[in-house]
Write a structure and sequence with these properties.
The protein is α+β, with helices and mostly antiparallel strands and about 110 residues long. It contains 3 helices and 6 strands. Helix content is about 20%, strand content about 30%. Strand 2 and strand 3 form a beta hairpin.
Length: about 110
């Protein structure tokens, strides 16, 4: 899936069957695959903008398992189904990032 644009990570059935469904677009072709685990490695700034901007972007997914609620993450259209738990969202919101400047005093 290198170079693919992930559109959805659906872990709503992970407890029942242990599988996570990942939807992505690669070379213009929408594809779905099932896996046991997913590592999300988007930049923190992307996650922060997604969490901050997800109000009003929640909907009940027609066609999703059990009509699960989903949340759109960012302008790229990636979403988690169901939305990230409040604890994880809070951690993402509170994490800091930026430049680190070191000052060495010379006597």
């Amino acid at each position: 899936m290198l170079g693919a644009a992930v559109t959805e990570i659906d872990y709503s059935n992970a407890d029942a069957d242990g599988k996570i469904c990942v939807s992505y677009i690669q070379a213009g072709n929408p594809t779905k695959t099932e896996c046991d685990a997913v590592v999300v490695s988007v930049p923190l700034g992307v996650l922060k903008s997604c969490i901050a901007g997800d109000s009003g972007k929640r909907d009940n997914a027609a066609g999703s398992a059990g009509g699960a609620e989903r949340v759109w993450l960012g302008e790229g259209g990636m979403r988690f189904t169901p939305p990230l738990p409040c604890g994880k969202s809070r951690v993402i919101e509170n994490m800091g990032f930026g430049l680190l400047n070191k000052v060495v005093p010379l006597a």
